Amino acid sequence: MERVKRLMGPIIRTSFLIMIIGGVLYPAAITVIAQVIIPDRANGSLIYNGENEVIGSELIGQNFTSAKFFHGRVSSIKYDASGSGSNNYAPSNQEMIERLKESAAAWEKDNPNTPLNKVPLDLVTNSGSGLDPHISPDAAYAQVSRVSEMTGINQQNLIELISKNTQGKELGIFGEERVNVLKLNLDLVELL
């Protein structure tokens, strides 16, 4: 019993020291370093309009429903960033099949000039988080006909706009080429 009493002081002091270092000092140091080195990213990669109002983040997808804009991926959580995630359904799951049918029907209704068999899968399926702000370049090109028809902008100009907004693979080897839908639509608004 005497030995336990003797060890309690060092155990408690060590525990508080670890809590202070791991719970206060380390997070504070990382926050300061991030604010100095990469302040834009540390603050959420926010995008502002001309009046300095936040209109979105490069990291969180938005739901564009107007036919004159490029559309992003389907979101099973309705782009609600308070909680992300998606049901991990197997391809044979009936709810997954129904959701895919609904997405395909919505695509056909909004894009009558593009056959469904030419639609990239990322336009009718959702990402794991439900918040993905990117689509593949093919998904953006598949929407050119509709956007051109609705805005009156020449298809070649839209193709150039997509090309300008296509981001390459990370470090040239990781991931896939992608297009940030919010940035693409902001550039589109400038052409209107």
UniProtKB/TrEMBL annotation:
- TM helices/strands, residue ranges: 12-38
What is the topology of this protein in the membrane according to its UniProt annotation? Single-pass membrane protein
Tell me the protein family, please: Belongs to the KdpC family.
Subunit structure and binding partners: The system is composed of three essential subunits: KdpA, KdpB and KdpC.
Q: What is the lineage of its organism?
A: Bacteria, Bacillati, Bacillota, Bacilli, Bacillales
Q: Where is the signal peptide?
A: none
Query: Has keyword rRNA-binding?
Result: no
Q: Which GO terms describe its cellular component?
A: plasma membrane
Q: What is this protein called?
A: Potassium-transporting ATPase KdpC subunit
Q: Is the Coiled coil keyword given for this protein?
A: no
Instruction: Recite the UniProt keywords alphabetically.
Output: ATP-binding, Cell membrane, Hydrolase, Ion transport, Membrane, Nucleotide-binding, Potassium, Potassium transport, Transmembrane, Transmembrane helix, Transport
Q: What Gene Ontology molecular-function terms does this entry list?
A: ATP binding; hydrolase activity; P-type potassium transmembrane transporter activity
Q: Record's Pfam families? A: KdpC
What is this protein's function per UniProt? Part of the high-affinity ATP-driven potassium transport (or Kdp) system, which catalyzes the hydrolysis of ATP coupled with the electrogenic transport of potassium into the cytoplasm. This subunit acts as a catalytic chaperone that increases the ATP-binding affinity of the ATP-hydrolyzing subunit KdpB by the formation of a transient KdpB/KdpC/ATP ternary complex.
Where is the protein found, in the record's own terms? Cell membrane
InterPro entries documented for this protein? KdpC (IPR003820)
